[in-house]
Each structure stands twice: as C-alpha cells, then as structure tokens.
Design brief:
The protein is mostly helical and 127 residues long. It is built from five helices and no strands.
C-alpha cells in the first residue's frame, strides 16, 4: 500500500512538472517567435532552471512512503529540497557564466514556471 501512495504522489508531482514544462516551453517558443533567438534561448534557460530542479525534487521526495518509514520520508523531502536549491543555484550560475542572456525573458519564464507551481493546488485535486 505504501508503494502505491509513493507512486501516486510521485505521479502527481510529475504532472505538475509536466505542466510547468509545457507552459514555460510555450512561453520560450513565444519569445523565440516574437523577439528572436537570443530571447528564445534566454527564456528556455529560465524554463530549464525552474523545471529541472522540481523534477529532481519530485523524484527524490517521493522515493519513500508509509508510516513505518516516516523518518525516511522526512529525510527524503529535506534531501530533495536541498538538492533542488543547490541545483537552482548551480544552473543560474552556469547560465550567467556561459550564456549571453537577456535577463527579462530569463526571469519572466522562470517566474512563470514558479507561479504555475504555486498555483497548482487550484488545478489538481486529490481523490
């Protein structure tokens, strides 16, 4: 039963990440079509910076479940959040060091993906 709960939680988190990726990818494409290649790549970099750490968090955080492994569940969530934060910092650093980015599309796309994450309870209902 506990593996089923972990799988259900993981797939809900993956659905959220997929929704973030779809909206951020669409926004990146819009920037590319309307404003050109540099704005498109900058927006795509913002999308990757927002979506990839959330995917890693979902994978790590929902690796355990059940009352008998409550300590493992808590440890997995803390570990997942720490890795997510560090990965976000590393990705921002790599983008600023190695890419010539336009800041507006980068942060617009990153912020939009975060807003999708924060607004997720409005769209997903648990049965």
């Amino acid at each position: 039963m506990s593996k089923i709960l972990a799988r259900r939680g993981r797939w809900s988190a993956y659905r959220l990440v997929l929704m973030q990726a779809a909206i951020a990818g669409g926004t990146s494409f819009l920037f590319f079509v309307v404003w050109g290649v540099q704005f498109g790549w900058s927006a795509f970099a913002g999308a990757v910076i927002a979506v990839l750490p959330n995917f890693v968090f979902a994978t790590l955080a929902f690796s355990h479940s059940g009352a008998s492994s409550a300590g493992k569940v808590l440890k997995a969530f803390y570990w997942g959040e720490a890795v997510k934060l560090l990965l976000t910092i590393v990705l921002f650093s790599l983008v600023f060091i190695y890419m010539e980015v336009a800041f507006m599309p980068l942060f617009v796309c990153y912020s939009l993906a975060l807003i999708v994450h924060w607004a997720a309870p409005l769209y997903f209902k648990q049965s």
